[in-house]
């Protein structure tokens, strides 16, 4: 995995720089997400790894699979990756690009796990409080896990805040058994 990241990093940085200069970070992020998702499918993985297809043909197969979603610069980027035999790196390139975009926007992606679905007001209040605490813009992704009983688990990068009843019960059990 580290090898793939090392190979993908220069491409992600180049795409990020281009998107930043073109003031189209959101557009590139969306398009790279689309093409990375398309490249993960088993059939597509076989097609882009087929040695009997030229680099141009491999790129065209991937571009055709994404339809009209891709702009001309992104299509050119895919052709460049195909010429350098790096199409298999698309998922890693997207992850690195997204991380660079998040850092540029001084934002943090937060995964919020709750026992029940939160209403918009509660979610917005939590995002505002986390934004103050982390001193960044917060992008919340919610996950419902009915095993939690009650409370929330917040994951922001390497920070984990376990405010669930289940987590508190586990801490109590450890304390009693110690």
Automatic annotation (TrEMBL):
GO terms for molecular function: proton-transporting ATP synthase activity, rotational mechanism. It is a peripheral membrane protein. Belongs to the ATPase delta chain family. This protein is part of the stalk that links CF(0) to CF(1). It either transmits conformational changes from CF(0) to CF(1) or is implicated in proton conduction. F(1)F(0) ATP synthase produces ATP from ADP in the presence of a proton or sodium gradient. F-type ATPases consist of two structural domains, F(1) containing the extramembraneous catalytic core and F(0) containing the membrane proton channel, linked together by a central stalk and a peripheral stalk. During catalysis, ATP synthesis in the catalytic domain of F(1) is coupled via a rotary mechanism of the central stalk subunits to proton translocation. GO terms for cellular component: plasma membrane; proton-transporting ATP synthase complex. Its main location: membrane. PROSITE patterns: ATPASE_DELTA. Pfam families: OSCP. InterPro entries: ATP_synth_OSCP/delta_N_sf, ATPase_OSCP/d_CS, ATPase_OSCP/dsu. Keywords: ATP synthesis, Cell membrane, CF(1), Hydrogen ion transport, Ion transport, Membrane, Transport. This is ATP synthase subunit delta. HAMAP family: ATP_synth_delta_bact. The keyword Ion transport applies. Gene3D superfamilies: N-terminal domain of the delta subunit of the F1F0-ATP synthase. It comes from the Bacteria. It is found in: Cell membrane; Membrane. Signal peptide: none annotated.
